[in-house]
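TASK: fixed-backbone design
INPUT:
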């Protein structure tokens, strides 16, 4: 890096996530911030963007993060703390709280991390949302579903990316899918003794809004329309971000967004809010105390020019975010999967010949020899590739994704049974 301002704020970043999904954030932040990173192993590709790093035994241990951060802060004062990994946002809040930095409200972040606490806070302020009841057993779930009326949604209390979420239309379907909602987890997920929500089904189409919050003021910078697949499971198979989306001028929607943040008591940071647009108006599905995943903020950057990484870094350091769009495009992403469970990939590739100019990225996520499955077994981590496209219209963007899908070829064979 050359010709960098010597007064760049010192930003602590906790973990990174996959390079293919998160490098664009570091690329944006690095020229304007001195980044120190906490990781659980030596950095590799990250070194291009960071000024220093600390390797910890675990970046999931809040106490260890706090100890390391205090030591770093004593030597090189930290101006802000940032994390975009769902499994580590609560621990990061502990660090910010200890150092007296923006976002250092553990209870605030936990009201986002714990979906039951989210529902409770929204209900107390009358923010529109599906009715939601926390249950412990399948029998409790059956009684609750009868009261709410089918269909209902079963949802884990503290996962992300629609993991473990399923729509059920009857008592039999509920019983068949109870273990999926109850037992789906990831290694970093928090443990709750009572961990399943039974929720009223909100009929409509789902969107997400990424926002920067500075001293309680909510500034949305990326609105995405979600594409779902593999019913009754809610696998997110794609997203579209339109800089000219009419929903951005929907006063009722924006009021719900602002009211939801006020209900949560969210004062400083970035959020990814999911909202269902129903015939009765917008209803909040959840609020995540981090920037969105699935390349959604990247699509926003390409479609509008408003930089999500710089916005997140600014509010983390107590600075007003600068979110000035300089273009009006449409960005889209689509994810791809194998057809059958326990497929061992032999090859995955895109044929780039003849693809339209709207294609932005063609990304292969899995190498030959990897065993994978489609949803629900391969939810999220079953993706073998993705493509992004940027165009002047939604139709052209979708056409680009369609062309890339036709250009994707993969082959595989069934994994041999171990029995």
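OUTPUT:
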């Amino acid at each position: 890096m050359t010709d960098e301002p010597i007064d760049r704020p010192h930003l602590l970043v906790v973990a990174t996530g996959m390079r293919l999904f998160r490098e664009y954030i570091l690329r944006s932040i690095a020229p304007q911030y001195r980044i120190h990173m906490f990781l659980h192993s030596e950095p590799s590709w990250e070194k291009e963007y960071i000024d220093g790093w600390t390797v910890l035994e675990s970046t999931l241990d809040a106490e260890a993060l706090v100890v390391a951060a205090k030591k770093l802060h004593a030597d090189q004062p930290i101006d802000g703390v940032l994390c975009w990994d769902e499994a580590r946002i609560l621990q990061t809040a502990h660090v910010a709280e200890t150092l007296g930095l923006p976002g250092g409200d553990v209870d605030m972040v936990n009201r986002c991390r714990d979906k039951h606490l989210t529902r409770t806070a929204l209900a107390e302020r009358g923010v529109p949302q599906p009715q939601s009841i926390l249950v412990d057993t399948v029998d409790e779930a059956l009684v609750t579903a009868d009261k709410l009326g089918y269909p209902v949604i079963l949802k884990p209390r503290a996962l992300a990316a629609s993991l473990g979420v399923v729509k059920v239309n009857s008592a039999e379907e509920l019983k068949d899918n109870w273990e999926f909602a109850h037992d789906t987890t990831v290694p970093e997920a928090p443990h709750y003794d009572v961990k399943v929500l039974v929720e009223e089904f909100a009929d409509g189409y789902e969107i997400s809004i990424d926002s920067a919050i500075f001293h309680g003021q909510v500034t949305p910078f990326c609105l995405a329309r979600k594409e779902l697949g593999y019913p009754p499971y809610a696998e997110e198979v794609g997203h579209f971000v339109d800089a000219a989306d009419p929903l951005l001028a929907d006063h009722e929607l924006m009021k719900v967004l602002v009211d939801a943040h006020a209900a949560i008591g969210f004062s400083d940071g970035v959020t990814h809010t999911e909202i269902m647009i129903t015939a009765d108006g917008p209803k909040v599905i959840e609020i995540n105390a981090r920037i969105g995943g699935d390349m959604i903020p990247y699509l926003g950057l390409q479609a509008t020019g408003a930089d999500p990484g710089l916005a997140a870094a600014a509010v983390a350091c107590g600075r007003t975010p600068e979110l000035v769009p300089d273009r009006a495009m449409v960005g889209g992403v689509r994810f791809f999967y194998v057809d059958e469970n326990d497929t061992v990939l032999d090859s995955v590739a895109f044929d780039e010949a003849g693809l339209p100019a709207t294609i932005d990225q063609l990304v292969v996520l899995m190498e030959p020899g990897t065993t994978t499955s489609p949803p629900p077994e391969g939810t999220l981590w079953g993706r073998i590739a993705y493509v992004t496209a940027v165009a002047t219209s939604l139709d052209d963007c979708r056409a680009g994704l369609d062309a890339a899908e036709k250009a994707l070829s993969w082959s595989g064979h069934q994994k041999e049974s171990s029995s």
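COMMENT: The longest helix spans residues 62-75.
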